Amino acid sequence: MNDAFKSEIARTLKVLKEGGVILYPTDTIWGIGCDALNSKAVDKVYKIKNRKETKSLIILVNSFEMLQKYVDKVPEITMDLIDSIDKPVTVIYDNARNLPKNVGASDGTVAIRIVRDDFCSQLISESGRPIVSTSANVSGDESPMVFSKISESVKSQVDYCVKLYHELFNQAKASTIIRLFETGAYTIIRE
């Protein structure tokens, strides 16, 4: 880990711990995020996105062990399913737990992705808490693939913009989304 990376982790952690909202590179596209366990910070994310709270948010965790803290029963097939797909995978699980009500969906489900990205993984590891991730745009607008395409409106409303990878064009698209039921049955919602 180089010094610039370490100092960005430290600055970003400070903002998250203070209940702030960040603009950050994820394992897919640039995201707006916050501490997923801080309901007031989550409300700020909805406000910046101009998004209805009935649309749930994605939660990022950095391990299977952390995932188990926020889902009542993780089906046995989970890791095989995630590992069988080359790109990042967001899974919608039944029976969310230990999360604020405004993070999950009204039916009790929650969308969670185990990240493989170094920055996100380190940030989650050092905070010990999951992070909200939603595309860095106002709801309905196109998702930006590079930092320079993020609207000034979004940039001006977050508490901190991570100062890494601004010139990097992210070829990745939004994650694959799978609805996984407690029985182990699943449906691919977005490839």
Task: Please characterize this protein's 3D structure.
This protein is of the alpha/beta class and 191 residues long. It has a single domain (3-190), classed as DHBP synthase (Alpha-Beta Complex). It is built from 6 helices and 9 strands. The chain has helices at 3-17, 39-49, 64-70, 78-83, 118-127, 152-157, and strands spanning 22-25, 30-33, 58-61, 89-93, 110-114, 131-135, 160-161, 176-180, 186-190. The protein has a 9-stranded mixed beta sheet with strand order 7-1-2-6-3-5-4-8-9. Helix 1 (3-17) packs across helix 5.
What is the structure about, briefly put?
This protein has six helices and nine strands, in the order αββαβααββαβαβββ. The chain is α/β, with parallel strands linked by helices and 191 residues long.
Mean pLDDT: 89
As residue ranges, the low-confidence spans are: none
CATH topology, what is it called? DHBP synthase
Tell me roughly what share of residues is in helical segments.
25-40%
Q: How many structural domains can be distinguished in the coordinates? A: 1
Oligomer: single chain
Largest sheet, described in full? 9 strands, mixed
Architecture in CATH? Answer: Alpha-Beta Complex
Tally of helical segments: 6
Class of secondary structure makeup: alpha/beta
Shape category: globular
Q: Cα distance, first to last residue? A: 32 Å
CATH class assignment? Alpha Beta
Beta-strand content: 15-25%
Say which CATH homologous superfamily is assigned: DHBP synthase
Sequence of secondary-structure elements: HEEHEHHEEHEHEEE
The largest beta-sheet arranges its strands as 7-1-2-6-3-5-4-8-9
Radius of gyration: 16 Å
- Tell me the number of strands: 9
